[in-house]
Write a structure and sequence with these properties.
The complex is a heterodimer of chains A (572) and B (190). Chain A has 572 residues and is an alpha/beta fold. Chain A is 36% helix and 16% strand. In chain A, helix 10 packs parallel to helix 13. Chain B has 190 residues and is α+β, with helices and mostly antiparallel strands. Chain B folds into two domains: 97 residues, Alpha-Beta Plaits (2-Layer Sandwich); 66 residues, Alpha-Beta Plaits, CATH 3.30.70. Chain B has five helices and nine strands. In chain B, strands 5, 6, 7, 8 and 9 form a five-stranded antiparallel beta sheet that branches. Chain B has a four-stranded antiparallel beta sheet with strand order 2-3-1-4. The longest helix of chain B is centred in the last third of the chain and has 12 residues. Chain B is elongated and about 55 Å long. Classes of the chains: A alpha/beta (572), B alpha+beta (190). The interface between A and B is large, with 35 and 38 residues.
Chain lengths: 572, 190
């Protein structure tokens, strides 16, 4: 069967089970858009900026575990995807980005809307392709999806010159791929698993530190079994949040720069650290030389290059977490670490991290707590980066697997709204709350139009403190309160919402928070709430940059009247 | 020994060199020398990469290289017995009085005269880096006009070949022959 390149691409996407494409057309991809209506299985959602398309595809991928697809034209269309591709790369998200390119005879001649997007995205993709022959297209699509979703997932870009979309070639969709240089290991080495299980059996103060790898490999049940069988407390990285139920008796919250003090103390005192699907990011480890000084480290990861990259490891295991943990759980002994757990409980009692200080004013933590209460935790929370992200990580109890989605590694402001859009498209049955910063929201708020056009009922909570809050916090703490370039005299977000056609509310009074949230939830479509909060509220606890995890700064205010959160009441 | 010799067998596609170079730049790995050429197998190229182990975590380089899709196999062959050679072309200024001495120097070092003109001689030497360095030092006094050197190419002694050797198998080939070798324990603290 001979088909044009554009149809070959669509046929291939259909065969990969693609349901939705986030994209924005342009000259170089016109032949593709021209045939899209013939493939109603491929729902095209028109974004208002290509960055939104990439973040949306990323959000879709994170929420569903399926490959997210975004599409853009050549030149500026392709470069606008870059931030979103980088975000997906750093957080190991399976995304396929399809870009148009100028026709083959024009490549290399600085033609109109020509950029070398495969060159630009070389360091931020798992792999990328420039398709120089329509006959290669089907194989390349097959490979791209395979590479994106297997092993350590990541973004793959396919750059297609305009004339390749027009050329005819015989269409045959391959049923298997053959990439001699790519054979991800999934089973852990039996010798290493034996060594790890011996260390776990012998440990007196073991601690599991779990990351996004657990979510990616859907090893929720296996992690729970490991923790329960050997009674090992669990802490998570930021992106590991929701890989282990946070109301579980063995859950001790998040580690790192804004992690719970007790979680960081646990890392500091553990004699065995079982690191599952984490990459020892500096925001999680603090000063690397002082990280887990008393612990032997078992590191399980599917990417061999992560082993020993940042932190020394005693027992490395390369493999898929689900499979490795199944093997490991079969070998370890039942253990109790009452002494150790009691110690952790005591630290938690003395260093509550999610307690709300009393304030007559509206504080951001209170907003997050109320969203938690209104949804009973049964929602997916999507955030960008900054203070709002940390409060959302700290003050919501994530018991539902894979219910916290945020830009971690890249830390991209503006991720929240388009990513939430992708999450909601992927999981239409779920309640999706986009918790946005007032700064980040303005980076991608044009996607409100997409929400309306494509009818995507995301609920938006802007944590509006009138500052680029996290940067302001650093200026307060480390730059003598010189606030430079961080003050945001904001527009009227409610009127912006209304201009786009969705209802909005402004909340400045604590007492009105629950009713506003209830109103948003009761509304059928997208809804925006502008929570105008205490402008100079800081995120605590905080480990100063470059410090050891135990050198944590806690809420300094003396006038606090703490309401201990349900997560921090004693369980023993 | 701090200099490490890595051999990568890669698919011969456009852009593979750019991927390797981009990786080295991005991760801050400094390349001492790089030589690329075809192999005995059509469609596959061989890269010989020399890095300084004192400035670079060699195992990390090897694993990052192995992640590139077109890289089929990477081995650090430094700890094995090697044949390692470089080629240099050296053009030296000559005068009627120095000409004989320069030719003798070339002879002693195993270099070959490949071109001679009225006031210069060009010689070719294929040797390890140290021998080439000493020839260049020796000739400097006469006035070197031009030096062109290749990167090192290397091969292990004995019957083993990179694509058959089992010990340093990257993730690429290991799965085909049962479980991979037990990885090393990593002691380095950064």
């Amino acid at each position: 069967m001979k088909l044009r390149g554009a149809r070959i691409l669509c046929e291939s996407l259909v065969r990969e089970g693609v349901e939705v494409i986030f994209g924005l057309p342009g000259g170089a991809v016109l032949p593709l858009y021209d045939v899209l209506p013939e493939y109603p299985q491929l729902r095209h959602i028109l974004v208002r900026h290509e960055q939104g398309a990439a973040h949306a595809a990323d959000g879709y991928a994170r929420a569903t575990g399926k490959v997210g697809v975004c599409m853009a034209t050549s030149g500026p269309g392709a470069t606008n995807l870059v931030t979103g591709i980088a975000a997906a790369h750093l957080d190991s998200s399976p995304v396929v980005a399809i870009t148009g390119q100028v026709a083959r005879p024009f490549i290399g001649r600085d033609a109109f809307q020509e950029v070398d997007i495969t060159g630009i995205t070389l360091p931020i993709t798992k792999h990328n392709y420039l398709v120089m022959d329509a006959a290669h297209l089907a194989t390349i699509v097959k490979e791209a999806f395979y590479i994106a979703r297997t092993g350590r997932p990541g973004p793959v870009l396919i750059d297609i010159p305009r004339d390749v979309l027009v050329d005819e070639a015989t269409f045959h969709y391959p049923d298997r791929v053959d990439i001699p240089g790519y054979k991800p290991v999934t089973a852990g080495h039996p010798e290493q698993i034996k060594k790890a299980s011996k260390l776990i059996d012998e440990a007196l103060r073991p601690l599991i530190i779990a990351g996004r790898g657990v979510i990616l490999s859907k090893a929720f049940a296996e992690l729970k079994e490991l923790a329960e069988k050997a009674q090992i407390p669990v802490v998570t990285t930021l992106l590991g949040i929701s890989c282990f139920p946070e109301s579980h008796v063995l859950s001790f919250g998040m580690v790192g720069m804004h992690g719970m003090a007790y979680a960081n103390l646990a890392v500091n005192h553990a004699d065995l650290l079982i690191a599952l699907g984490i990459r020892f990011d500096d925001r999680a480890t603090g000063k690397v030389s002082g990280f887990a000084p008393q612990a032997k480290i078992i590191h399980v990861d599917i990417d061999p290059a992560e082993i020993g990259k940042n932190v020394r490891v005693d027992v490395p295991i390369v493999g898929d977490l689900k499979q490795v943990l199944q093997d490991l759980n079969g070998q370890i002994q039942v253990r109790y670490h009452l002494e150790w757990l009691r110690q952790l409980e005591e630290w938690r009692h003395h260093h509550p991290a999610t307690a709300l200080r009393h304030s007559d004013n509206l504080i951001p933590q209170f907003v997050i707590r109320k969203i938690y209460e209104a949804t009973a935790g049964n929602a997916i929370i999507v955030t960008g980066v900054g203070q709002h992200q940390m409060w959302a990580a700290q003050h919501f109890w994530y018991d539902k697997p894979n219910s916290f989605i945020a830009s971690g590694g890249l830390g991209a402001m503006g991720f929240e709204l388009p990513a939430a859009m992708g999450v909601k498209v992927g999981c239409p049955e779920e309640v999706v709350w986009c918790v946005a910063g007032d700064g980040g929201f303005q980076m991608t708020m044009q996607e409100l139009a997409t929400l309306m056009q494509a009818d995507i009922p995301v609920k938006i909570a802007i944590i509006n403190n009138g500052y680029l809050g996290m940067v302001r916090q650093w200026q307060e703490l480390f730059y003598h309160r010189r606030y430079v370039g961080t003050w945001l005299p904001n527009p009227d977000f409610v009127r912006i919402a209304e201009a786009y056609g969705l209802p909005g509310l402004r909340v400045t009074d604590k007492a009105l928070v629950p009713s506003a949230i209830a109103q948003a939830m009761a509304h059928q479509g997208p809804f925006l709430i502008d929570f105008v909060v205490e402008p100079e509220e800081n995120v605590y606890p905080m480990v100063p940059p470059g410090a050891n995890l135990f050198e944590v700064i806690e809420e300094p205010r003396r006038d606090v009247e703490l309401t201990i959160g349900p997560r921090e009441t004693s369980n023993l | 020994m701090t200099m490490h010799t890595l051999v990568a067998i890669v698919e011969d596609h456009p852009g593979v060199l750019a991927r390797v170079a981009s990786l080295f730049r991005r991760r801050g790995f400094n390349i001492q020398s790089l030589a690329v050429g075809p192999t005995e197998m059509p469609g596959l190229s061989r890269m010989t990469i020399v890095v300084d182990g004192a400035t670079v975590a060699v195992e990390q380089v090897r694993k990052q290289l192995a992640k590139i899709m077109e890289v089929i196999k990477v081995s650090d062959i430094s700890r094995q017995r090697l044949v390692a050679k470089e080629l240099a072309l050296i053009k030296v200024r000559t005068t009627p009085t120095t000409r004989g001495e320069i030719i003798r120097a070339a002879d002693v070092s195993g270099a070959r005269i490949v071109d001679a003109a009225g006031d210069s001689i060009t010689m070719e030497i294929t040797e390890d880096s140290e021998k080439i360095d000493s020839l260049i030092t020796l000739l400097r006094g006469f006035g070197i006009k031009e030096v062109a050197r290749t990167g090192r190419v290397a091969m292990t002694r004995g019957a083993e070949a990179v694509l058959q050797a089992g010990a340093e198998t990257g993730p690429a080939r290991g799965r085909r022959r049962g479980p991979p070798a037990v990885p090393e324990t990593y002691k380095e603290r950064s």
